[in-house]
C-alpha cells in the first residue's frame, strides 16, 4: 500500500504543483489570460503559485524522507483539502446555474479540483498511516 500511495501522490502532485507554479508567470508574460471570475485574480494566482511551490517541496520532502517533510505534508495537505473542496463545490454550483458569476470551463475546474482533493487525502493518509517514513537510521533508535 505504501508504494502505491507514494505513486499516486507523486503522479498527481507533480502535474498539479507544476500547473499551480507556472500559471502566474504565464499570465504575467501574456501567454495565458487569467480567469475573469475572481475580482482579485492576481492575489489568487500568487496564492496558487506559492501553494504549488509548497506542494512541490512537500513531494521532495516525502521522496527524500526529510524530517521536515511530515509537518509540511500535513500543513500543505490540510490547506489544499479545504481549498480544492471549496473550489470544487463552486464548480458544481456553477454547472447547476446557481452561481452569480460563472466560472470559465467549470467541468475542467471540477475534475482538476476533485483530483486535488484526492491528492490531499492521499498525502494526509500517507503522513498518518506511515509515521516512521520520515525517520532516518539515526532517529529510529
Apparent shape:
globular
Number of helices: 4
Write down the Rg. 17 Å
Distance between the termini: 25 Å
**Topology pattern, helix = H, strand = E:** HHHH
* Helical amount: over 70%
* Beta-strand content estimate: under 5%
Structural class: mainly alpha
User: Spans of 5+ residues with little confidence (pLDDT < 50)?
Assistant: none
- Biggest sheet statistics: none
How many strands appear in the DSSP assignment?
0
Q: Average pLDDT across residues? A: 86
Verbal overview:
The chain is mainly α and 141 residues long. It is built from four helices and no strands. Helix 3 (69-95) runs antiparallel to helix 4 (106-129). The model has no long low-confidence stretch (mean pLDDT 86).
Strand and helix map with partners:
Elements: H1 2-28, H2 41-64, H3 69-95, H4 106-129
Helix pairs in contact: 1-2, 1-4, 2-3, 3-4
Question: How would you briefly describe this protein structure?
Answer:
The protein is built from four helices and no strands.
Name its key features.
0% strand, mainly alpha
Amino acid at each position: 500500500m505504501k508504494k502505491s500511495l507514494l505513486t499516486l501522490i507523486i503522479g498527481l502532485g507533480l502535474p498539479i504543483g507544476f500547473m499551480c507554479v507556472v500559471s502566474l508567470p504565464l499570465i504575467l508574460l501574456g501567454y495565458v489570460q487569467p480567469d475573469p471570475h475572481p475580482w482579485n485574480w492576481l492575489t489568487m494566482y500568487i496564492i496558487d503559485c506559492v501553494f504549488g511551490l509548497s506542494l512541490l517541496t512537500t513531494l521532495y520532502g516525502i521522496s527524500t524522507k526529510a524530517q521536515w517533510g511530515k509537518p509540511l505534508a500535513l500543513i500543505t495537505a490540510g490547506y489544499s483539502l479545504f481549498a480544492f473542496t471549496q473550489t470544487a463545490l463552486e464548480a458544481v454550483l456553477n454547472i447547476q446555474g446557481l452561481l452569480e458569476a460563472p466560472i470559465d470551463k467549470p467541468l475542467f475546474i471540477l475534475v482538476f479540483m476533485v483530483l486535488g482533493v484526492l491528492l490531499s487525502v492521499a498525502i494526509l493518509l500517507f503522513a498518518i498511516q506511515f509515521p516512521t517514513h520520515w525517520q532516518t537510521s539515526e532517529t529510529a533508535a
